[in-house]
UniProtKB/TrEMBL annotation:
Sample GO molecular function, one term: lyase activity
Pathway field: Cofactor biosynthesis; coenzyme A biosynthesis; CoA from (R)-pantothenate: step 2/5; Cofactor biosynthesis; coenzyme A biosynthesis; CoA from (R)-pantothenate: step 3/5
GN (gene name): undec1A
Cofactor(s) this protein requires: Mg(2+); FMN
First and last residues shown, out of full length: 173 to 397 of 397
Listed name of the protein: Coenzyme A biosynthesis bifunctional protein CoaBC
Amino acid sequence: LTDHFSPGDLTGSRILITAGPTHEDLDPVRYLGNRSTGKMGIALAEAAAARGAEVELILGPTELSTSVPGVTTTNVRSALEMHAAAMARWSDCTAGILSAAVADYRPAEVAKEKIKKSDGALQLRLVRNPDIAAELGASKRPDQLLVGFALETENGVENARGKLERKQLDFIVLNSPRTPGAGFGHDTNQIQLVDRNMVTDFELKSKRAVAEDILDRLVAVKQTR
Ligand code: CTP
Ligand code: CA
C-alpha cells in the first residue's frame, strides 16, 4: 500500500465512481440483482480521497458503505437511478471510474401488487437499461478521463478492447474470473489494465492496493494530456 500511496497527486480532481450492483424490481418484494458487493468501488473511492480527490460515489444497494472525508455517497437502487445520478454529476467531474455491475436489463413493467403464482411457467419480459459508461463516454470532454471495468469468461482482452472503443474509455480494468480469491465479495482482486496499445498484468493483491494501481495509471494518463 505505502509504496503506491502518493499523497496529493489527485488534488484538484473530482472523480465520479459507480459501484455495487443494481436491483431491478419485479414487484413490491422481488427484484433481479447480481453478486457485486461494491468493495472494489469503495476501495477506489477511499484511495482516491486519500490522494486528494473529491469523490462522487454512486453506490448501488449493498451492505457496505464508507464515511471517509472527501467521499460524497449517493445511494441508488436501479440502473435507471444510477444513470440519472451519474449523468447529473458528470460535467462537474474530471474523471469517471465505472466499477458498478449494472443490470443490462430490467423487467418491462413493475407489478403494483405482489405477483401471485399460478400453474405453469411465468414469463418475464425484460427491456434494456441505458449504458451509463457509453453515455458518459459519448459526452466526454478532452479534459475528462473515463475508466471502465470488465469481467470476461472468454477472449478477455479482445472483448475488453471492444468495450473500450464502443464506450470511448481511456482504459479498462479487466477482472480475472477464475483466479481463486479474486472478484465478487473477496478482499483481493487480480486485474489487467487494457488500453488500445498495451496490456499490463498485476499480481493478486488487496482491493485497496489494486485501487492504487488503477489510480497510478489514471494519474499517468492525465500527465500525458
Ligand atoms: N456499464 C454501465 N452501464 C451499463 C452496463 C455497463 O456503465 N448499463 C459499465 C460497467 O460499469 C463497466 C463497463 O460498462 O465499467 C463494462 O460493463 P460490462 O457489463 O462488462 O459490458 P456490457 O457493455 O454490458 O457488455 P456485456 O454484454 O459483456 O455485459
Ligand atoms: Ca453487462
